[in-house]
Amino acid sequence: MTEPSAEGRDPEAVSKFVESFAAQLVEAGMQRMPARVFAALLSSDPGSLTSAELGEQLQVSPAAVSGAVRYLAQQHMVSREREPGSRRERYRVSSNQWYEALTNRDAVLKRWEHALREGVDSLGARSPAGRRLAETLAFFEFLDGEIAKVMERWRVHREQQYGADGVA
Amino acid sequence: MTEPSAEGRDPEAVSKFVESFAAQLVEAGMQRMPARVFAALLSSDPGSLTSAELGEQLQVSPAAVSGAVRYLAQQHMVSREREPGSRRERYRVSSNQWYEALTNRDAVLKRWEHALREGVDSLGARSPAGRRLAETLAFFEFLDGEIAKVMERWRVHREQQYGADGVA
DNA sequence: CGCTACTTTCAGAAACTTGTGAAGTTAAGG
DNA sequence: CCTTAACTTCACAAGTTTCTGAAAGTAGCG
After folding, report:
1. CB under 8 Å, gap of 24 or more: what pairs does A133-136 form?
2. Can you name the residues that pair with B92 across neighbouring β-strands?
3. Contacts of A18 by beta carbon, 8 Å cutoff, 6+ apart
4. Core vs surface per residue A129-145: b (16+ CB within 10 A) or e
5. I want to staple B18 with a disulfide (CB 3.0 to 4.6 A). Which of B39, B67, B85, B123 is the partner?
6. Which SUPFAM superfamilies match (chains A, B) (predicted)?
C-alpha cells in the first residue's frame, strides 16, 4: 500500500516493514535485535548500512547493534565490510547469501542427527523407541541431501526467470 | 553407548537422551518445556505417555505438562487421546505425523510471504530494496512447492526402504 | 446426583534475557 | 606517537518468560 510516487523513501513505511518482518522472524525463534537489524538491512536500498545508521533507524545503542551484528555474521546472514579510509564499518546483506544461509541450517540438522544417533545407540536399535528414533534420523539424513538439491533447482529457476546472477 | 543388554530400559540413559535432544530443539527456537515433553514422548517405547508419567519423568508439575502439551498439540506434533474408561489422558507422537508437522512450517512461510509482499508494495517494486524483497519472496514461494515435493519423495523412499507405513 | 480422579487456569516468585551506559580497545590520520 | 572516531565488552537494571501451588473446572462411575 502507499506506493511511493518517486524518489524519497518514506521512513515510516520502511519502519513499518522492518518491524513487521522482524516480528515474524522473532516468532520463528530469532532474537529480537538481530531480527530488527536484519530486516533493516534487507529493506535498505543499498543493501548495507553503517552501525550508526542502524542505531539511529532502530533507536538502539551502539552496543545493541554490535551484538546483533556479531550474531548475524556468525550465522552468515550478513557480511561486514570496512569502509576504506575510515574506521566506519558497513554491514551488508546480499540476497543470495542470506537465504542460502537460511537453508544452511546444516549445523542445526547435524546436531539433531548427532543427538538422535546417540539415542538410537543407548536405547537399543531394536527397541520400539530406538526404531522410532532411527526413522527420524533417516528422515533428517534424507533431508540433508534434498535441501542441497532444492537450492540447486532454485538457482536454475532463478536464472531462467531473471537472468539474475547477483542482485546486490 | 551402553547398549542395553535386554528388556528394562535404563531410565538414566533415557533421561540423558531426552535432555540432550530437548536442548537441541531449544537451541532451534522451541520453548524448553514443550521440547522436553516432546523428547520424552519420542523416546518412550509405546510412543505415548500419560500426563502423570510425564510429570514424574521430567520432575515437573501437572500444570507445566498441561501447558507444554497444549502447545505441542497446536503445532500438530502430538495428539491427545483419552484412555477409555478413565479420565486419564495420553499424549502420543507418531513418527510420520511429527516430522511432517516440522515441515508444515507452512503457516510460518505464509506469514513471511505476507510481510514481504507488503514490503514490496510499500517500498515500490522498482526500488532496489523492493526488488530485493521481491526476490526473497519468490524464493519462499518456490520453497512452498518444493517442500511438498520433498515430503512426497520421502514417503516413497521410506516405503522402499522399510516397507513401513505406520511405525507406531 | 454427588464424589473423586484428573486436567486446566491463574497469580505470583524465581530465573533468565535483553539492552543500556560506561569503560576499554583498536586503528586512522595528523 | 598521540589524538580521536569508531567498535566492543561488561556489569547491571528493566523487562520478560517460565514454572509452581492453589483453586476451579470437568467428567467417569457408583
Report:
1. A133/B42, A133/B43, A135/B95, A135/B158, A135/B162, A135/B164, A135/B167, A136/B42, A136/B95, A136/B98, A136/B99
2. B48, B79
3. A36, A39, A40, A43, A57, A58
4. bbbbbbbbbbbbebbee
5. B39
6. Winged helix' DNA-binding domain (SSF46785)
pLDDT above 80 (res B3)? no
pLDDT of residue A117: 97
Q: How far is the CA of B142 from the C1' of C1 (A)?
A: 61
Average pLDDT, chain B: 89
Contacts of A124 in chain B (CB under 8 A): 3-4
Q: Which of B77, B92, B62, B66 minimizes the C-alpha distance to B30?
A: B77
A46 and B CB contact within 8 Å: yes
pLDDT of residue B132: 94
- B123 vs A14, A23, A95: nearest CB: A14
Nucleotide closest to residue A80 (CA–C1'): D7
Tell me how far CA of residue A66 lies from CA of A36, A73, A101, A108, in angstroms: 13, 11, 20, 24
Within chain B, where are the H helices? 11-27, 32-42, 51-58, 62-74, 95-103, 106-123, 128-162
Question: Which triple of cell numbers denotes residue A105?
Answer: 541450517
For cell 550478513, what's the residue?
A: A78
